[in-house]
Structures
1.
Amino acid sequence: MSEFDPTILHEAAIPPPEEFSSRARVSSITEYDALHRYALEKPEEFWGEQGQLIEWITPPEKTLEWKLPHAQWYVGGKLNVSYNCVDRHIAKHGNKPALLWEAEDGTAIEFTYCELRDLVCRFANAMKDLGVKKGDVVAIYMPMIPELPIAMLACARIGAVHSVVFGGFSAPALADRIHDAKCKLLITADGGYRRGRVIPLKESADEALKSCPTVKHMVVVKRTGEPVAWQQGRDLWWNELVDQFPETCEPEVLDAEHPLFILYTSGTTGKPKGVLHTSAGYLVQCTWSMQNVFDLRDDDIFWCTADIGWVTGHSYIVYGPLSNGASVVMYEGAPDHPKRDRFWRIADRYNVTIFYSSATAVRAFMAWGKQWLEGHDISKIRLLGTVGEPINPAAWKWYYEVIGRKQCPIVDTWWQTETGSILISPLPGATPTKPGSACLPLPGIAARVVNMQGEPVKPGETGYLVIEKPWPSMLRTIYGDDERFRRDYWSRIPGAYFTGDAAQCDKDGYFWVLGRVDDVIKVAGHRLSTMEIESALVSHPSVAEAAVVARPDEIKGEAIVAFVTLRAGQNPTPELKNHLSDHVSKIIGTIARPAEVRFADLLPKTRSGKIMRRLLRELAQKGGISGDTTTLEDIGAIERLAQQKGQEE
Ligand code: PRX
């Protein structure tokens, strides 16, 4: 923003390689600055122009209708997202690979844009035949197989709203999400592969549907061929179904603000929130950011290693790349299967040019060592990206030197499920980068670090990261809970969108995102609510009370520590600790499994009965307490916890 002076950088930064800049879409920091200023002064003109990146059936009459906290973008416009991501590329690029899919066992299948259109249309027709109508919500619970993006695009084609639930979630977590959105159809697979093991998705789906009467049908992709239970009349095999339908399906004409998808994410309470995204604004900004943050060209091979079950996969495996007619690599399995060189093997095999991964993955690669690169030619990679959590400068440098050979810019992209697309990031041909900083807000994004009153804090001081103006791919509401939408995002800081992140802005106007200020934690980039894990723990008959905090973890960023008080008569054994961790995996999924369970006689509470997480956090992180304990009800509780830890060690 105005703090930024492109002519001076106070601190050392790494300039983009000249060769990269000379060919880039935005090729200098002055160019960035001009674009950013223009977009801030005239946001509607700027975003109106970007609206031309997509194809409209009826062009919009007005770019923005803003009545805080509700935005409507591209008012009056009509479009179809699946048409934009598939059909519109066919004339020029019909035989270009859209998806380059690699199975965990190494099998490779390529889908051209023509093939993708046929498959999307067949499945769209099948859903229509099953009674799915415009506005109905369809749950998708799948492994990383091609049918997943096909199902999403088929929903978009007929105006159904997809709700993808990450395949690592367990049956109760799936049931909660299906229930909340009153889904009509569930699409899943008999199972998925992870490190050669079969993950029995259909079994979890069956379990979930016991409590989901709104779901009338379950479509099942045969992936593993393992035997599964079958409910006649409800369950249908994907293959048998799609074969019955033609490969053409007129895309539905949809309003710019027609809901495209719901994606559940964790917030401060135990109940996950259904973040609702709509069609045009989301697509425009995904298309724009894909082009500019990744400096996308026609001949790029783009690989985003995220799972489509998270927003990164939605925006940068499916909608962003496909809307641009790009070729996308999609990999089914784990990065260390069968060996730790798997990612470099894939990058070599498909000639990947842009590699977008998580900070956790980079730290894991660094821990595994550079010998895993031997024998794999990854020299085609020209740009690296990272997302999901702060990346520490040491990991950044390793990424830059070892994977990027000091020739590839790194885009550290800050954004959220709620923001829909990247909001703060370097532009790779323009922005000098500082290891560990997401750098500058993208053009059109009014980001700022403020105090609780909404006043900007001084450079180098910590404050809250807010976005002061609406942007096209912003969430429109929390599905079924507009009040929570208002409360969580629009009432903390006057007039601005509250991100929930703490950040600093340095003298150069560069943003340094420090982490969450709420009860959300990030384990290996996965967003989890401490309250959700606590509810899972107290649902166990041995547990009286639980408090969950995070401690730093060298690879995963954060790890879960659970403090548990047992019910009278329960024995605090190591077996019970394990058993409680298993219980959390069963209720939420293995991603939420505590790294450590610690028993306590009492949890430290304030006199009004609030658990003092700050103290527990300190205890989990440092092993002792030095902070202020004057409001503590029972000082003995925390002392006993600290001592107990000492004895265990
Ligand atoms: O805390 C920030 C962190 O991830 C949160 C959003 O998580 P989620 O909705 O799961 O979306 C992740 C993928 C877009 C943010 O509030 N975060 C995301 N990217 C970065 C980051 N923290 C620091 N640097 C980033 N680049």
2.
Amino acid sequence: MNVPVKIALAKGRILEEALPLFERVGLGPIESPATSRKLTLNTESGKARLVVIRGADVPTYVQFGAAQLGIVGKDVLLEHGGGDLAELLDLGFATCRLVVAEPVSIAERDDPVYRQRLRIATKYPNITRRHFAAKGVQAQIIKLYGSMELAPLMGLSDRIVDLADTGGTLAANDLVEVESIVDVSARLIANLAALRMQSGPLEQVIQSIQNAVHKNGR
Ligand code: ADP
Ligand code: MG
């Protein structure tokens, strides 16, 4: 019996949307992650073990080979940056966009002087720095860990860089989208060294996930 392939999964939305997909191809967990306190879960086929961790930790586990595969949002992947990772597949769920937004009141005023040096609150300092540097806009980045929508309302920042889906949360906080930075969805990533080993079990699990995505009607 082969050692199971370890798949690091971001808990929350990604895990919830990945599970029904995995169940269709024998990669569903034997125990429910909702009720089990275990952080690693064996799967029905025994070919993989699921490791459920914070999204931001998924690229790290995969980069260092602690997990051969990972499922994580493109937002988290871009923020993490390169490093011994291969992006194998767009899984097509957890779709949203990373956007720049500002208060409606300021968008209406549109004062160019005010825009010379922006203060931007975000959970994504690396993506934000790259984005504004590429545009030649001076930006002071304020790192937050959640509830970015609050920052402009509280006078902490001029703008935010955050995820938006329908824009409902932005609108509810009197914010409007200024521009879209990138389209986001869940991605399958792999450790580069593990891929190069061309291990049969790893390739089988990747194939299973690919089949699951196709069965999902894509
Ligand atoms: P957390 O906010 O605790 O990091 P979430 O489950 O809210 O966890 O988000 C995890 C991932 O799901 C994000 O990194 C992103 O890729 C995706 N995501 C977040 N918000 C949305 C959304 N509104 N619509 C679709 N996907 C989203
Ligand atoms: Mg969230």
